[in-house]
Amino acid sequence: MGRLISAVVVLSIATLVGRADEPARIPDSVHAVLAARCLECHTGADAEAGVRLDGQAIDWTAAEQVGLWTRVVEVIEDRRMPPPDAEPATQAERHALVSFLDPAILARTPFGGTVPRRLNRAEYEATIRRLCHLPSFLLPVGFPSDNERHGFDNLAEGLVLSPAHLEAYAAVARDVADEIFPPPRPAPRAARWEAGPNDLVLSFSAATIHGDALRLVSRSVDIMRSCTWPSRIEMKDSGTYTVTVEASQFLSPQGHAFTSPMKLEVYARPVSATDRSRVSAFRLLHTIDVASEAPVTTTFDADLYEGDTVLFRWANAEMTHEFDDLADQMEAWFRDDPRFLAAWQKAVFPSGDPKHPVTGPLRGRNGWDIVSRHWADPQLDLREATMDSAKTKRLLAVCRSNSGTFEIADALCHFYHERGPALEIHRVTIEGPSKTIESPRDKARAAARQAIVGPRKDDHSDADLVRSMLVRFLPKAFRRPVDDATVASFLMIASLHLEEGHSLDEAMHLVLRSILVSPRFLYRDLEPEDAKETLDQFDLATRLSYFLTQGPPDATLVDLAGRSRLGESWVLRREATRLMPKKAGDPMIKSFVGQWLDTKLLPGIMPDPKFNFDDEAVSLARQETERFFTEILVANLPMTTFIDPDFTFSTIGFCQRNYGFTPEVGKGEEKTLPPEELKRFQRLAIDRGGRYGGLLGQAAILMATANGVDTQAWTRNR
């Protein structure tokens, strides 16, 4: 029925534009527009770019004529013609041309006969992940980007296949094959690494070097504020290693007492892990009790994987960067030492007004120098250095706030660096491996290999195993059933490789590479030697899946396509509803919003430092827009919601700092909201018709539409 309706439509259009075997006369109204806007340049043998538009009729049976007038429609719709230095065509003139040409071109364009659509970067990456069972696969740095058309990178006309793409696809295919069928590695050779204090990382204020030792003072859960690790030690092989650590306590009469052993935790840290990681992300290898002020050596064996180094953390340090713990610690300290309390009051409230705290200049060593100077000042005002004063209460609230905690804690670290208690690391040595072990990466490789190759029966030859692999794998790679000839062609590649004396893994390696560079894998809806005029069920499954999930069709879609069920409208609607993105983190949401609203540009934009708009704030701004778009999509809200909504998604703290208002959920509280409530990302009610809310008032949109030099991320003055 669908084909019949399509045929009727095409025949109807053909009737309007003339019989297929007769040239179609150009109407006077259309010819008048061509004469006024086009013929000055596109007439006769010397027509510009070889484009002649001076005929009285169009021979639609000639393919070159169809192509010529298709180009005319494209440049008219894109407003590339008339050229910028000529008078532009009016809307009525454009309409006259397009309304005449478009139906004729459509009538002579086979359904499904558009430019072959190559997988774009995101689709290609997602397909490799799912097809090859590599959930963490990422395209290498420098992989060619896709051309955009009309602001998007998934339109066929922009998805050209350049020489750079061919080279990149071949390189990725080899890398993927290496991951699943790795070449044999030589037996690991024992090695020895040594690191002194100058070879250990100094992250934020957590660590400093004093003489022959590095001092740790904080037990924050963020490694950049509490830990250190060797900067030039990385395991090349997974195995059991011998780790030796020389450590001691640092105490002084000017510092605090510390009577129990210091707990030095040693973790395995992948070198590739970000410095913003949390300690909980890593494997604990050993805990050392450091109970002496003289250096003591501890040796232990530990399993380290390829790409690992060791990470050190003082687990029971007095100093912390955690909100409530820091405030409780400061409160106890203030009770014991009113001068210390007064020094911090002077540093945080330099104007004397507790309503206007200043913490930015206090971060790190500079902040501690300011506090120390006030602390030592014999003229320091102690009148408000009491636990019930307004300044003290406000100061403790600042200690529990988001930014205040880190800035005050980073300054306070230097008290411990200078006076103690601190834990000192003098030297680290790693030797081995004494034996090899299987790493999680090795296990993942084996699982991926098993999933791709499948089980081997007792009577299977190498060729039989390759054939069974191809029968199962090729339909997944090409996203449709394959015939025996296709299987045989890839089996021949493996058989010849085996006959040349290569191993089974090497033959599988070659076959996998060949599949991953095949046009039938790299392109959608591409069947060799098959001039299809309509989309079939598998084409439909593929298009639906890549549109809504950015990835290949799942088992449900493939099953429905195989049973020819997707052609039923209710089945297609049900599957579209099932695959529709529902969360802001879904690939389609991030891709569409990133391209439609240019939020993909945010990582490359650097707001003026005076706004204190850091990477975390940029990420939150992008989340605002993505969550906002998702809500409108999922709830099927009217388009006007994009401009004038009665809600937004953000945190109370972000709204206060960057938009200059406090949402209703955060009002009516005299005391400062707890940090976790200020940081909680949530749906917030706002008034319609107000100055806040909607795409035009979101930080991400304001940043993306600025020039990147004088970016104003704040909207308060907009």
Structural notes for this entry:
The chain has 718 residues and is an alpha+beta fold. Among the domains are: 2-107, no CATH class; 191-318 and 422-436, Sandwich (Jelly Rolls), CATH 2.60.120; 326-412, no CATH class; 587-704, no CATH class. Helix content is 42%, strand content 13%. The protein is built from 24 helices and 16 strands. It has helices at residues 2-17, 28-37, 63-77, 91-107, 121-131, 163-180, 323-336, 338-348, 364-376, 390-399, 402-419, 440-453, 462-478, 484-499, 504-516, 519-522, 537-549, 555-562, 569-579, 587-596, 615-635, 652-659, 675-679, 699-704, and strands at residues 24-25, 57-58, 117-118, 191-195, 207-210, 213-216, 227-228, 239-250, 262-270, 283-290, 296-304, 308-314, 422-436, 523-524, 647-650, 682-685. The strands form five sheets. Strands 4, 5, 6, 8, 11 and 13 form a six-stranded antiparallel β-sheet that branches. The chain has a four-stranded antiparallel β-sheet with strand order 7-12-9-10, with no helix packed on it.
